[in-house]
Amino acid sequence: MMRQDERSELERHGFFLGCRAQTIELLLGGAFLQKFPARLELAREGDRADFLHVVIDGSVEIFATHVERETTLGIVRPPKSFIVASVALDRLYLASARILEPARILMIPANSIRKAMVEDGAFATTIATELADAYRNNVRELKNQKLRSSLERLAAWMLLRDRETGATHRFTIPFEKKVLAAHMGIRPEALSRGFATLAKFNVVINGAEVQIREPEALERLAKLTPLIDDPDA
Q: Where are the alpha helices (DSSP H) in 120-229?
């Protein structure tokens, strides 16, 4: 049962912006707001999409497997939802999802989502926006993978992570390095070689701790551009 303070918090969430009161009641009436620990699997590829998941706090890894291989497709942070297309189309999940950092996740029944899309134009616009954002993120990630070397991708990730954490030029890698390697599209041993090469650009890595001593050198390597690196562009 959702507490009243949680309900009030969620009603102000951007996901419900512009929705009718009846729509909010439909969506939250059967929803769950739950805390999950790291590494817990929330959705499995090939399963039916029973819920739409909205990340309120923490982060979620979207990943896929084939034969004995596994790769990270993306990392979702607030205030986004994930695997929206499977819910909207009532199809099977094409990817899996597991908690990266301890998270609060709003789980809304898929049937309620589809009903609200039909009945409330504002909410249908919200879902269309979520789908469009997911598509644009996929294009940015594809460009990142295709147009940059693995070292350039790693440098770009470090610069963006530094910005996210206050631009102090010191931050902690927030998840296992094998997840970072998969997110970069490289093997773990290639990530280790990348870390070693970045020492030439005055990047110091000690375990999960990263210090960027010469950000200008890293910027020259990564060549950040809004058309790849800015999610709001």
A: 121-147, 150-164, 177-184, 188-198, 215-222, 226-229
**Cα dihedral sign for 140, 141, 146, 147?**
positive
Six-digit token string for 2: 């959702």
Is residue 95 located within the same domain as residue 57? yes
Indicate the DSSP class of residue 13.
S
Same domain, 83 and 178: no
Q: What is the largest CA-CA distance in the chain?
A: 59
Q: Of 39, 63, 6, 16, which is closest to residue 182 (Cα–Cα)?
A: 63
Q: Check residue 4 and give its pLDDT.
A: 86
CB 210 within 8 A of CB 217: no
The helix (H) or strand (E) run that includes residue 27 is helix 21-29
CA 60 to chain centre: 6
Co-location of 131 and 159 in the same domain: no
- Write the pLDDT tens digit of every residue in 89-129: 999 999 999 999 999 999 999 999 999 999 999 999 999 99
pTM: 0.87
Structural domain boundaries, residue 163: 148-229
